[in-house]
Amino acid sequence: MLNYNHLYYFHVAAIEGTVAGAAQRLGVTQPTVSEQLRTLERALRVSLFERQVSGLKLTESGRLAFEHTSMMFQAGERLLQALGHDPAVIPRTLRVGISGAVGRVTSTDFMMPLLALEGSVPSIRGGDGVDLIRELRANELDLVLIETEPPTAARQGLEMIELDRVTLVAVAPPGLKPAADWQNLGIVQYRATSALRWDIETYLSEHGLRPTVVGETDDALFLLEAAARGGYVTFVPRSVARDAIATKRLTTLATVTTTHAGVFALYQDGDTADLARRAVHVLLEQVRAMNELEASTNR
After folding, report:
1. Mean pLDDT for the stretch of residues 68-81
2. Rounded distance, CA 90 to CA 230, Å?
3. Do the Cβ atoms of 239 and 258 come closer than 8 Å?
């Protein structure tokens, strides 16, 4: 096993460039520094320095070792800084898993408040909803955001809160003139595996609308561009289309409140879930603020 002191003597010697400089900084004699360096080289079985009249020059192995010791001692300094504060105010990591579908139906505004959550450093990653719930149960995640309500058995022992219900808008270029039954329009649809697809199909059927399907995708941003640049009609989450509608790049043809898709938050049911609960509260406030903004804009 490597000796921490040997590594530290090497690190200081590499910075100072001479044995004399390292000894002065460390408060020891020059022979002590030299012996520590030789002991480390024997342990690693490589030469770390070229001993020259002008001082110490790192070898290739020495440069590699110095890169590692630099990271190691920087991490040690950060640890000391963190532990030098009241443990109650050391930021906690909030591990958030977000399903791909939620990422596609929400705007960046939705998640932004988590970055300002006091006493927390969010670590957000994507994944499949089933896998994320499994990791939540294994305490590898603190909070999971998924697009559909899981079965009762799947959420046993977990808290679940519906944060929002997805509202879709049918958008098209301002100059597009749809026929009464939309038969003159091409539509880019969600894939058949998407919960949003069935809400759209139901809406089209109930209103006697028969556009021609020209493609399928689950990418909301691509759907937005297909409408704006391709001249097609697409259904996208209202939050995603908000700016394009406000700038009159797109116009709204219809609004659909979904019955199958939303944003659901899941976290462990227990006293240790206080950070996840605070995060959910912040997200609920953000959803409320976004909905109020959209309502005032549409008046």
Report:
1. 79
2. 51
3. no
Is 153 within 8 Å of 221 (Cβ atoms)? no
Show the domains of the chain with their CATH numbers.
4-83 (1.10.10.10), 92-161+262-298 (3.40.190.10), 166-260 (3.40.190.10)
Do 276 and 151 form a contact (C-beta atoms < 8 A)?
A: no
pLDDT, one tens digit per residue, over 159-216 is 999 888 888 999 999 989 999 999 999 999 998 878 788 889 999 999 999 999 999 9
Cα–Cα nearest to 40, from 78, 82, 12: 12
Q: Which pLDDT tens digit goes with each residue over 105-154?
A: 665 677 888 888 887 888 988 888 888 988 888 888 899 998 888 877 77
Segment holding 68, helix H or strand E: helix 60-83
Q: Are strands 212-216 and 186-189 parallel, antiparallel or unpaired?
A: parallel
Q: Is residue 18 within 8 Å of 34, Cβ to Cβ?
A: no
Task: Give the residues across from 144 on adjacent strands.
Answer: 97, 266
Q: Which residues of 45-60 are buried (b: 16+ CB within 10 A; e: fewer)?
A: eeebbeeeeebbebee
pLDDT in tens, 152-170: 777 788 899 988 888 899 9
Looking at the chain, which runs of residues are DSSP E strands?
49-52, 55-58, 92-99, 120-127, 143-146, 158-172, 186-189, 212-216, 233-237, 251-268
**What values do phi and psi take at 146, rounded to 5?**
-130, 170
For the chain, the first-to-last Cα distance in angstroms comes to 70
